[in-house]
Amino acid sequence: MRCRVCGGLLEPRITDLPFKTGDSSIVILRSLPVLQCRQCGGTELEQATMSRVDQLLSRVDGSAELEIIRYAA
Ligand SMILES: [Zn+2]
């Protein structure tokens, strides 16, 4: 798999990523497995990770401006 932005090599990494869930609410997912580009630092999610992220985000009520959730596979 290659970076969509620059075509660089993607490496698996564990990181924390913010996701916007509404106009003023953000969820930070901790310990998320991502693919990160060696060249530009851009991140991509694998399909399975993306589905799991969608599940986690759909459970957030959105009333808090900032919520931190630990990603667990
Ligand atoms: Zn890149």
Task: Characterise the protein shown here.
With 73 residues, the protein is of the alpha+beta class. It has one domain: Ubiquitin-like (UB roll), CATH 3.10.20. The chain contains one helix and four strands, in the order βββαβ. The radius of gyration is 13 Å and the shape is elongated. The two termini are 21 Å apart. The mean pLDDT is 93. It binds zinc ion. Zinc ion (ZN) binds at residues 3, 5-6, 8, 37, 39-40, 42.
Question: What keywords describe this structure?
Answer:
1 helix; elongated; Ubiquitin-like (UB roll); 16% helix; binds zinc ion; alpha+beta
Largest sheet, described in full? 4 strands, mixed
- Work out the strand percent: 35-45%
Mean pLDDT: 93
Backbone shape: elongated
Architecture per CATH nomenclature, i.e. the level-2 architecture: Roll
**Proportion of helical residues:** 10-25%
- The number of helices is 1
CATH topology: Ubiquitin-like (UB roll)
Total beta-strand segments:
4
Distance between the termini: 21 Å
SS content category: alpha+beta
By CATH reckoning, the class would read: Alpha Beta
Sequence of secondary-structure elements:
EEEHE
